[in-house]
Hints:
Elements: H1 6-24, H2 29-32, H3 43-62, H4 64-77, H5 81-88, H6 94-112, E1 120-123, E2 125-129, H7 130-152, H8 162-171, H9 173-179, E3 189-194, E4 200-203, E5 210-215, H10 216-223, E6 235-237, H11 239-247
Parallel strand pairs: 3-5
Antiparallel strand pairs: 1-2, 3-4, 5-6
Amino acid sequence: MTSPTLDDIRRDLTDEQDALDAVVAPLTPDDWAKPTPSPGWTVADQIGHLTYFDGTAVTAIVDPDEFARSTEELLRSLGSTDAERATLFRDLTPNDLYERWRANRQRLAAAGATLDEKQRIPWYGPSMSAKSFLTARLMECWAHGQDVVDAVGATRPATDRLRHIAQLGVITRGWTYANRKEEAPAGEVRVELTAPSGATWTWGPDDAGDAVRGPAEDFCLVVTQRRHVDDTALAVTGAAARDWMEKAQAFAGGATSGPPKGGRR
């Protein structure tokens, strides 16, 4: 499987944002206030979250020192009402938040265009390569977009842009365990996914005793903790693969668990 270029990821990030925009644009004020599967978060909160971190991503690219300062400030305020209000833009009306989200996406596209593949960008954990950094923004847009789609009953067709998220899901297997301060089970896991286009994406040795096989969209839903593995069409073989799929976390931040079986269908 050919590795995507930085330009591929930039383009797909913009396309993923536009796909979510198509879902959000026709929403009414009542829709923006609807609860999403994330406890305590409305549709507006999901878009506010994307807006805030697209903005801090710009800062991380163009002014790493300011990013470090603002990160310290954010960490000191975590858990407070003020921090939640600021990072979710809860003081903005839906229309103003929508426009802020669009503006921050444009700023991120401009900043991302200055990156080259050798750069590393600071983030809320280890620094990331330019490719991984923009892939993480794509993953965040898709995952939080799924919360919006679930909340309003919208349709967002799966595309082969999921390849980036699946790749991130695979390479963060070790992170999933390190983040939980656990040892990863020994052995390799074979991953074979069917893309929305019908192509097959594979990772890991052919002869691995453990394997995860099935639709790419389902794999992405599991590694972003939007579905429990038992609520998908994934076929999981072996104890190590099963343990991974029950704990998988493709995103930064403290260790979290996805929904229980039957929690989000």
